[in-house]
Amino acid sequence: MAKNMLKFLSKLRLLFTPEKSLFIGLLAYILLVDRLKK
Q1: How far is CA 6 from the centre of its chain?
Q2: How far apart are CA 38 and CA 22, in angstroms?
Q3: Rounded CA gap, 17 and 1, in Å?
Q4: Do 16 and 24 contact (CB within 8 A), yes or no?
Q5: I want to staple 21 with a disulfide (CB 3.0 to 4.6 A). Which of 9, 13, 27, 30 is the partner?
Q6: Where in the sequence is the domain holding 30, given as residue range(s)?
Q7: Angle, vertex CA 28, rays to CA 26 and CA 30, nearest 5
Q8: Per-residue pLDDT at 1 exceeds 70
Q9: From residue 35, how far is each of 3, 14, 38 by CA, in Å?
Q10: Is the confidence at residue 18, as pLDDT, over 70?
Q11: Cβ atoms 21, 30 nearer than 8 A
């Protein structure tokens, strides 16, 4: 699960500028943590 998520994020990172990818990475991290809490 985590490896697939990282692959997905790395693909997304190529599509965006560093600033946007950082924001999206943070957002994805928050969603992932929120999911793990439940």
Answers
A1: 7
A2: 25
A3: 25
A4: yes
A5: 13
A6: 2-37
A7: 70
A8: no
A9: 16, 25, 5
A10: yes
A11: no
- Take residue 33 and report the two structure tokens written for it: 């943590």
Q: Which helix (H) or strand (E) holds 27?
A: helix 18-37
Q: What is the mean pLDDT of residues 28-33?
A: 91
Tally of structural domains, the chain: 1
* Structure tokens given for 32: 């992932």
CA trace torsion 2, 18, 20, 27 (10° rounding) = 30
Amino acid at site 9: L
Greater pLDDT, 20 or 36:
36
Report CA Rg, the chain.
Answer: 10
